[in-house]
Amino acid sequence: MAAGTACVYTSCSSIKCVQEGCGRTWQQLNVATIPSLPRSAFCGKKLASSLKAQAWLPVAPLKRRNDSKHALKVSSVLMEPRPLENTIVNVGTGEEKRVDPRTVLSIILGGGAGTRLYPLTKRRAKPAVPIGGGYRLIDVPMSNCINSGINKVFILTQFNSTSLNRHLARTYNFGKINFGDGFVEVLAATQTPGDRGADWFQGTADAVRQYLWLFEDAKNKVVEDVVILSGDHLYRMDYMDFVQKHRDSGADITISCVPMDDSRASDYGLMKIDGEGRVMSFSEKPKGDDLKKMQVDTTILGLSPEEAAEKPYIASMGIYVFKKDVLMKLLRWRYPTANDFGSEIIPASAKEFNVQAYLFNSYWEDIGTIKSFFDANLALTAQPPQFSFYDAAKPIFTSPRYLPPTSIEQCMVPILFHVHE
């Protein structure tokens, strides 16, 4: 391709960002004791809107002018993109390998029939249930993906999906959000040829299995890891930190987990881990004596002795990272009849694969029942709230049919009454 040149004036003389687009590729220039541009900065001007993921690289040594009133002139040239690879980031005196978001694909599970949320799910799927005024539950994992730089997203749907499909089309397609070379695609349950082709999705694992052929598509060949997400949780997470832990530990599967108390432990998959964070055993929604057997000393997660006494269980959030090759092997060949991740795939895999736990130490709520839905909405009114939709750095996106509620903080609202005689 033809190369072009451009000039830009800046008051700084050290440039780290060398690749436009995902913003995850960096290079430390050998310019000592000179401050650098912020991580989101770039140098140069894009020649055409069709050029994607190209880099502006300085072609001449950077020199500081003695006269501080004059800006520094920087020349740069458009280069071909480098192959996808784990990029080196200089952190202090050490180096850390960072995961390229283009090698990560996410799958959001559209949820089952949602009987515990009835009548809210009478006409819509769980992820389409409104939360916090003008938002939908599906906006949470979608926004987390966008804020994490993951732009390859599949949403699996089956029950009452009309409202969910409409919201996804209005919010995340038709140019409202630019995903570059990524995509947002809805994968609906469908009947196909073959022995089991007449079956609809039989569970979370079976839903992913029926669309494994998409992983072999040419546009997904660069994908190395698959993030499995639920569409009915309320939380804010950087998934790239999650994937980074997965890569650094050499895990085949990584499970995001939270400490849990006695009152709700039986509603989740529980695990036991060793000192290295490896999952040694996993039990899905145990009851009675089986529940008691899953108690552990959660100080291993960094909790204080008092907190560990209150929360003696390690609960799965139902959020996983799989190596793509491992996921395909498990679903196609190792456990071809297993239908669910939590009750079948994960417990069996913990015995023969490297399954790691990732502690998520922040607000998280599973909106699976009317009570949890009610409590989560009321919790949004706390001062300060544990979770807020109003975060400029990591916003929650949506396309409401009406304006979200007004947020009034640290003020008094007088109520006046006028009595007519």
What labels describe this entry?
single chain; 18 strands; alpha/beta; seven-stranded mixed β-sheet; globular; disordered N terminus; about 25% strand; Nucleotide-diphossugar_trans
Give structural notes.
The N and C termini lie far apart (83 Å). The chain has a domain at 101-257 and 316-380: Spore Coat Polysaccharide Biosynthesis Protein SpsA, Chain A, CATH 3.90.550. Mean pLDDT is 75; it is low at 1-94. The longest helix is centred in the middle third of the chain and has 11 residues, at 162-172. It contains 9 helices and 18 strands. It is of the alpha/beta class. Strands 10-9-6-11-16-13-17 form a 7-stranded mixed beta sheet. 19% of the residues lie in helices and 23% in strands. It is globular, with a radius of gyration of 24 Å. Pathway: Glycan biosynthesis; starch biosynthesis. GO terms for molecular function: ATP binding; glucose-1-phosphate adenylyltransferase activity. Keywords: Allosteric enzyme, ATP-binding, Nucleotide-binding, Nucleotidyltransferase, Starch biosynthesis, Transferase.
